[in-house]
Specification:
Elements: H1 2-21, H2 28-31, E1 37-41, E2 59-63, E3 81-85, E4 103-105, E5 125-127, E6 147-149, E7 170-172, H3 181-185, E8 195-197, H4 214-221, E9 227-228, E10 231-232, H5 236-301, H6 303-306, H7 316-319, H8 339-393, E11 398-402, H9 408-419, E12 431-444, H10 445-461, E13 474-479, H11 488-498, H12 503-508, E14 515-518, H13 521-539, E15 552-561, E16 565-567, E17 584-588, E18 618-622, E19 628-640, H14 641-645, H15 656-667, H16 684-691, E20 701-703, E21 723-725, E22 745-747, E23 767-769, H17 778-788, E24 794-796, H18 808-815, E25 821-822, E26 825-826, H19 829-840, H20 846-851, E27 853-854, H21 868-875, H22 878-881, E28 896-898, E29 918-920, E30 940-942, E31 962-964, H23 975-978, E32 986-988, E33 1008-1010, E34 1033-1035, H24 1040-1044, H25 1048-1055, E35 1061-1062, E36 1065-1066, H26 1069-1078, E37 1082-1083, H27 1085-1092, E38 1102-1104, E39 1112-1113, E40 1126-1128, E41 1148-1150, H28 1171-1176, E42 1211-1213, E43 1235-1237, E44 1257-1259, E45 1281-1283, E46 1303-1305, H29 1314-1318, E47 1328-1330, H30 1343-1349, E48 1355-1356, E49 1359-1360, H31 1363-1379, ...
Parallel strand pairs: 1-2, 2-3, 3-4, 4-5, 5-6, 6-7, 7-8, 8-9, 16-17, 20-21, 21-22, 22-23, 23-24, 24-25, 28-29, 29-30, 30-31, 31-32, 32-33, 33-34, 34-35, 37-39, 38-40, 40-41, 41-42, 42-43, 43-44, 44-45, 45-46, 46-47, 47-48
Antiparallel strand pairs: 9-10, 11-12, 12-19, 13-15, 14-18, 15-19, 17-18, 25-26, 27-28, 35-36, 48-49, 50-51
Length: about 1500
């Protein structure tokens, strides 16, 4: 009956389906096969039946039906689109035969799990929004999926479940519970994702969308995204803004991490110093005991020889060598003759050894204490680094703040913990209190939002909400991770980032069904204490010195809403289902150790201790993880009774005085040996006497212990010697111990050995003792032993100040493979094998390239501080990207290479890696940067912790963006190498030996510079950074400069105004303001008096203060220096003329090698005015605050309207000042200036000379001038001499105003066309011209043209223009004019020969009539500089070839110049050299460009 009823019902459903789609039920058998689309809405289709009638169905839509399961589609294999919407589906099923399905819409149902879609490999669109899905899964096979809608579900994590869906373009996850940026980061694995929705307007937002920098984070990690939520984000500017923001954060946190690592290094150094201090007393005691022990052993060893003592040995043999000493063979001191005495010696030796064991144990305790402190500091640093990385990855939404005593919350935390501590609970462990070392506040925006939302939801859902009293149900409870899992740090970090685990997760980990918390320190700490005690009993460490094995602890303090709670029912399982109406349960705990409550209370101490009768101790079990908000992490330690008695104790039993007294008792035991004479040299008699032998060849044992020997050359004659003791001497080397073929034992302990170099050919040496020396270099010393002691079995190197002490043991074992014992410890086979493998090193070959490389073309979008090579290579090794049979060009596909810690000693086999972009070679033995010339695309290079001492080898890496060379042996920054790195933005060279920043000025693109822990000591080095206008992070920490320079931080901030962070600390606005006011280096009257030795200021006519670090001049009142005529402040730090402008009679000013930017400093007007501004205001129209940037071509700037300054100044030297803009100098205000020297600067445009109408001489050699503007010399109509050598001039325009110019020097420029020289015709008075070193002057073909066109020319390129040459030029000109009238080839120049021309071009030519001007030196002596009388000068030339550094001109020569008559003594003359082809080049000295009397040496006053 039921079957009939069901069949009838199905028939009615099919009829309804046919009716809704216009299909005749009666003809369904015929018409159904032609139907491709069906749809039915709202009712009439409770079950999916009758679909077998539609075998060709392609689209099926069901809406608003009461369908629980998908079924009946077995007969629809062609189905491509299926809609089952707003039904009551509880799962996905019945699609096995629908393998052509392309679109599937199952939204608005009750589906809880994504499954049964493995066969739908053609599926492109999947909508599962508005369901009950909690986890993304089951989509692995849908590789064609391009649209996925999972909005309005209960998804909290994305995970890696979408990684296979590489074609996904549209993803909607709105209305879920995603709260972590880490989850969004995983979407970066979808390369074609174009649209992403996390807060669609039709859905609620995910919690992550409410966090700061949400959009920035998404756009950075998914740069291909075109639409985010409802916004179009394809704009390039949007992506660049996100990229810039993230890059700045990475830079900031990289700086913070480096600071944390540096703090650890400081802590390690402090612990090491403390360790050295603590080792002094034990070391001295051990030394004393060992000396006595070896004396007794030496005396004991004489027993067999005492009866055979040679009669030949007399006192006479020793008295002449040892001053005031007794004979070593004196019978009175020979204890070994008496058997009773021998027994006493043995007893004393045993007592001494017992004391040595105790002191050695003391050394071990100190070492253990040091390691414990270092471990604690390392843990703190690692915590800090992990916290910082967590902040970075969350883009600041998780922040962990370090507390201090100034913070109210820090004090509250301390009070809370102290209030929850009860002395009686810990009395059994002798613990009297706790000390809080660190409190960290957790700022987690996502967790706090979740906690508050949950709390508000609960309060709103209560039937009788008592909002006023809900705070009473908030508790601050303690939590510690499970000590049995040994993952304390990982658990704390995970809780800080993601919160506590859910009940389901806890159960999956075999944990409780709730979060275990407590309001009592003793209760929450009990599991950890018990675990630590068990571990200590199992380990039974003999070096464990801390009586409290659980001394250091850490807890998480959480804010907890316990809500409605009740006591836990004993026997019931801890499950939420057992307590449906409460949020938490608790258990009261009676502490086991609460004894002595009624006994006498202990004496009160200064430590905070909890009250003896504290509130009831409880364990809380909270079911909902969202109601537990972690807020603080507290690091603390327990204080014991002994710690209070010795506040500075380290947990080591400090009883030095008792130990010393015991040592004294042992040392005073009988027999007490009389002091032995100290040998200072050796000869044959002494050797025989000490060894108690008759002939040298019989000596096999020799004890020279306890003398003052530093050399023992005589020992080499003891060819039979097997046992040698030279402990407690003064040896620094062992050069004399060589070529001893039978030596088996050598004791060289307690000396001053700094190296083993010199040790030679000890083929039988089996035992070597090197304890308590000064050895530092394990590699070098081990290499000596490997070569010269091939049979060595036992070696003791303890208590030496080894560099890299951690690696010494493995270094020695790796090279000395015969060793069986090292440092009194047996060598295990596994340890020896590992050391040998490490020492063998490795080479870069095909196998290593395959194993440690990647072919990814893009840098991972990861918020990580690892280098790109470190990020890429573990992710996708090259073997995955290439076939097993390697292609011929497989190396060209490698983009990243990570060869860290591979024991590489040389960079080889990299020449084929032409597309390599990121490389890391940290922690190897590389000594030279080489083999990278082919890697021209390299962007990041890391070579930390190698042995590199130069930057050579980087010149071809023009694309290099990041360079790291920390922990190498660099002593300087190679300017030539850095000059070829135009894109370098990050550079780190910390922990090297760099003494100067010279060269860094070449890297103008630099953003970050880490150069801490080097040897930079001078303030001048900061000026090398002034040109780095992009530099925002600078770290100089650990350099001598930081400690030695007064107001160091302010000084650096002043000179580098773009700096955002210095030495790991952000630069504050107040610091910038203070820097402007506190910029020091002011030269005052008192400083002048100190330098000159007197204070007669009015008598000073010349003042020379070179290299005095002068930054500002304040010689007020200026009238005191009324006689001052000449000032030389070369090599200082002046940036302006400062107070020099007030000197009334100054005629000559020399400011070479400074940093002059302007006559007056350029500063912004500030209110109120500073003292400096008040000083400048005394000068009317000083232009203070009016200086502007360089004007464009044709603009004269504002200086023309300013009042003149320094009216008496006539000669000004400003060479080598780094000047790039002449207009900013305001030189036009020096209206009386007659000579101006600006050589060796960075000037590119001649400007700002409009007011210098009296200028006679202008020197602009060695600048960057490319062309002359129309206003360059607009006012120089009386200029006589112009130097423009060694620039970049290509054209000679705008020289028209120089009508009086006599001499023009244009050597070493880029003049190419002879027509440019024709433009010099506008200089009617020109008598001397030099264009040597220019392309146009090659082969001297320009000479005839110049001689012909410049009628007044007397000297060309340093060679006199003779009458014969001028005649020849006219003849050539007339011949060429004649030849131009007839076709055909011109005559060769060799056929034209005039008398006198060839002698003119000979190498040893005497010139007459050539006048060489040396500036305005005569002006200072009162001579007339306009004198037209020419004096004779005669030159001898010696020549060599030299290529000029800026051009193709040959300049490889030094010219010896002999002058017969020099117009002005002390001047800087042109230096002239003759080339092989007859040309002569003229250049000026770089160091002696002076134009006033005694520029460097003032005359006596």
């Amino acid at each position: 009956m039921s079957e009939k009823r069901k069949h009838h019902g199905d028939e009615e459903v099919v009829k309804e389906l046919c009716l809704a789609n216009g299909v005749s039920y009666e003809n369904i058998a015929h018409e159904g096969s032609n139907v491709s689309s069906l749809e039915i809405f709202f009712s009439g289709f409770p079950r999916m039946v009758g679909l077998s009638f539609f075998p060709r169905l392609c689209q099926f839509t069901i809406l608003g039906q009461n369908i629980k399961h998908i079924e009946g589609l077995e007969c629809c294999p062609l189905l491509r689109e299926l809609w089952v919407v707003q039904c009551h589906l509880t799962g996905i099923s019945g699609l096995q035969n629908c393998q052509q399905l392309e679109k599937l819409y199952l939204y608005d149902n009750q589906i809880c799990e994504i499954k049964n879609l493995e066969l739908q490999i053609k599926l492109e669109v999947l909508w599962l929004n508005n369901n009950c899905i909690t986890q993304i899964q089951g989509l692995n096979t849908l590789q064609n999926l391009n649209e996925l809608n999972l909005a309005d579900n209960n998804i909290e994590k994305i995970g890696h479940s979408l990684d296979p869906n590489v074609r996904l373009q549209n993803l909607n996850l709105s209305g879920n519970k995603i709260s972590s940026f880490k989850e969004l980061t995983l979407l970066a694995r979808l390369p074609h994702l174009k649209e992403l929705a996390l807060k669609d307007p039709t859905s609620t937002s995910n919690p992550v969308c409410l966090l700061c920098n949400y959009a920035t984070h998404v756009l950075y990690h998914i740069p291909s995204l075109q639409r985010l939520d409802t916004y179009d984000v394809f704009c390039k500017q949007v992506k660049e803004a996100a990229e810039s923001t993230v890059m700045k954060k990475i830079m900031y946190y990289n700086m913070r991490v480096r600071t944390a690592q540096r703090n650890l290094a400081e802590s390690q150094l402090s612990l090491m110093e403390r360790k050295k201090t603590m080792l002094q007393l034990p070391g001295e005691c051990i030394r004393t005991l060992n000396r006595t022990l070896k004396n007794l052993e030496g005396e004991l060893s004489k027993a067999p020889a005492s009866c055979k003592k040679s009669a030949c040995t007399t006192e006479e043999g020793t008295t002449h060598l040892v001053e005031g000493s007794i004979d070593r063979s004196d019978p009175a001191t020979d204890f070994s003759r008496n058997p009773a005495t021998e027994h006493e010696i043995l007893s004393k030796i045993d007592a001494l050894r017992e004391r040595l064991v105790l002191w050695t144990r003391r050394l071990d305790e100190i070492e253990a204490s040091y390691k414990r402190g270092l471990t604690q500091a390392t843990n703190m640093m690692e915590y800090t680094v992990q916290f910082l990385l967590m902040e970075l990855e969350s883009v600041g939404n998780i922040r962990l703040e370090e507390g201090s005593s100034k913070d109210p919350w820090f004090t509250s935390c301390c009070d809370l913990l102290h209030s929850r501590f009860s002395h009686s609970d810990f009395k059994v462990h002798n613990i009297t209190g706790i000390k809080i070392n660190r409190v960290i506040r957790i700022h987690n925006s996502a967790l706090r939002l979740c906690f508050e939302d949950k709390l508000h939801t609960l309060l709103a859902s209560e039937e009788s909400p008592s909002h006023r009293n809900y705070r009473r149900r908030l508790e601050h409870l303690f939590y510690i991770p499970d000590p049995e899992k040994n993952s304390e740090r990982e658990d704390i970090l995970c809780i800080s980032e993601e919160g506590f685990k859910t009940t389901k997760q806890n159960k999956a980990l075999d944990g409780e069904g709730a979060i275990l918390l407590s309001n009592s320190l003793s209760v929450v700490e009990q599991p950890r204490i018990e675990h630590a005690l068990r571990q200590a009993s199992q380990d039974d460490s003999k070096h464990s010195t801390d009586t409290i094995h659980f001394r250091h602890g850490q807890i998480i303090v959480s804010k907890v809403f316990v809500g409605h709670s009740m006591p836990i029912r004993e026997g019931d399982p801890l499950d939420r289902s057992r307590y449906p109406r409460v949020y938490s349960v608790y258990r009261n705990v009676d502490t086991k150790h609460r004894i002595a409550m009624n006994e006498e209370r202990p004496n009160s101490t200064k430590m905070h201790t909890g009250p003896e009768c504290s509130p009831r101790r409880r364990q809380w079990f909270v079911f909902d993880h969202e109601l537990v908000l972690p807020e603080y992490i507290i690091h603390f330690e327990y204080i014991t009774t002994g710690d209070q008695e010795q506040p500075h104790s380290t947990g080591i039993d400090d009883t030095p005085f008792n130990n010393i007294s015991l040592d004294r008792e042992v040392l005073n035991m009988e027999p007490v040996l009389k002091p032995q004479p100290r040998l200072r040299s050796l000869d044959d008699k002494i050797l025989l006497n000490v060894a108690r032998a008759n002939v040298l060849s019989q000596i096999t044992v020799l004890n020279l212990h306890g003398n003052s020997l530093s050399k023992i050359k005589e020992i080499s004659r003891l060819t039979s010697l097997r046992h040698l003791t030279i402990s407690f001497n003064e040896f620094t080397h062992l050069d004399d111990i060589s070529h001893m073929p039978n030596l088996e034992f050598l004791d060289a302990s307690y000396n001053r050995l700094v190296t083993l170099e010199g040790l030679r050919r000890l083929g039988q040496l089996k035992q070597l003792d090197l304890r308590w020396n000064q050895l530092t270099k394990s590699k070098e010393d081990t290499a000596v032993l490997k070569k010269h002691t091939p049979a060595l079995l036992k070696l003791d190197t303890r208590y030496n100040p080894w560099i890299k002490a951690k690696t010494v043991r493995m270094t020695i074992l790796g090279r000395l493979t015969t060793l069986t014992h090292l440092d009194d410890t047996m060598v295990a086979e596994e340890e020896a094998a590992l050391a040998v493998r490490m020492a063998a090193g490795s080479k870069i070959n095909q196998a290593s390239l395959l194993a440690h490389s990647s072919t990814n073309s893009d840098r991972p979008r990861s918020l990580s501080l690892l280098s790109t090579a470190q990020l890429l290579c573990p992710l996708s090794p090259v073997t995955c990207g290439l076939s097993r049979e390697l292609e011929l060009d497989w190396t060209t596909k490698i983009t990243a290479l990570n060869l860290d810690s591979q024991r590489i000693s040389k960079l080889i086999n990299l020449n084929k890696l032409v597309n390599l972009r990121w490389a890391s070679f940290n922690d190897n033995d590389i000594s030279k940067v080489e083999g990278l010339d082919s890697c021209v695309k390299l962007e990041e290079l890391s070579l930390n912790n190698n042995s590199i001492n130069t930057l050579n080898g980087l010149s071809k890496l023009h694309c290099l963006n990041k360079l790291s060379l920390d922990g190498n042996q660099l002593s300087s920054l190679d300017a030539a190498a850095l000059d070829r790195l135009p894109n370098l933005a990050f550079m780190s060279v910390e922990n090297n030996y760099i003494i100067s920043l010279h060269g860094i000025q070449r890297v103008r693109s630099l953003l970050e510079l880490y150069i801490g822990n080097n040897q930079i000591s001078t303030s001048r080095d900061i000026y090398y950074l002034k040109g780095l206008t992009n530099l925002i992070i600078l770290d100089l920490y650990g350099n001598p400069l930081v400690e030695e320079l007064e107001n160091y931080r302010i000084y650096v901030v002043f000179h580098l105004p773009s700096l955002k962070a210095l030495d790991g600390i952000a630069v504050e606005v107040t610091e910038c303001e203070s820097a402007k006011d506190m910029f020091g280096g002011r030269l005052t009257r008192d400083m002048v008096a100190e330098k000159l030795g007197h204070s007669n200021y009015t008598d000073i006519t010349h003042l020379t203060l070179q290299s005095c670090s002068i930054r500002m001049v304040d010689l007020s009142p200026a009238d005191l220096f009324c006689s001052l005529r000449s000032v030389n402040f070369d090599h200082n730090h002046l940036t302006s003329f400062s107070g020099l402008i007030y000197l009334p009679n100054l005629k000559s000013l020399c400011l070479n090698y400074n940093h002059i930017e302007s006559i007056l400093p350029r500063q912004k007007t500030q209110f109120p005015l500073t003292n400096r501004q008040i000083l400048y205001s005394k000068v009317h129209s000083s232009g203070y605050g009016q200086h502007s940037q360089s004007k464009g071509k044709g603009e004269t700037g504002p200086t023309g309207s300013l009042e003149p300054l320094m009216g008496s100044l006539e000669v000004l030297h400003l060479s080598h000042n780094g000047i790039s803009n002449m207009a900013n100098l305001q030189l036009s205000r020096l209206t009386n200036l007659k000579a101006l020297f600006l050589q060796g600067n960075e000037i590119s445009q001649v400007e700002g000379l409009e007011g210098l109408h009296q200028l006679r001489e202008l020197v602009l050699d060695r600048n960057r001038i490319k062309a002359l503007a129309d206003n360059s010399f607009i006012a120089q109509n009386v200029l006589l001499e112009l130097h423009l050598a060694e620039n970049r001039i290509r054209e000679l325009n705008h020289l028209d105003p120089l009508t009086e110019l006599r001499k023009l020097f244009l050597g070493m420029n880029k003049l190419q066309d002879i027509t440019e020289l024709d433009k010099l015709e506008v200089l009617p008075s020109l008598t001397e011209l030099s264009v040597v070193g220019n392309p146009v002057a090659k082969n001297s073909l320009h000479r005839p043209e110049m001689v012909l066109r410049l009628s007044q020319l007397q000297v060309l390129d340093g060679v006199m223009v003779t009458l014969e040459e001028r005649t020849r030029a006219e003849l050539i000109n007339s011949d060429s004019s004649a030849c131009s009238q007839y076709p055909g080839p011109s005559l060769p120049t060799t056929e034209i020969n005039l008398p006198g021309l060839l002698p003119l071009m000979s190498r040893n030519t005497s010139l007459r009539g050539m006048t060489i001007s040396a500036g305005l030196q005569n002006f200072m002596h009162g001579h007339d500089i306009l004198s037209s009388n020419m004096e004779e000068a005669q030159f001898h030339y010696t020549y060599k070839h030299k290529k000029h550094k800026h051009g193709n001109a040959v300049r490889n020569g030094q010219a010896d110049i002999t002058m017969r008559h020099i117009r002005r003594a002390g001047s800087n003359l042109p230096t002239t050299g003759l080339l092989h082809d007859g040309n002569i080049i003229t250049h000026r000295s770089q160091e002696q460009d002076s134009r006033f009397p005694n520029c460097g040496k003032p005359p006596p006053m």
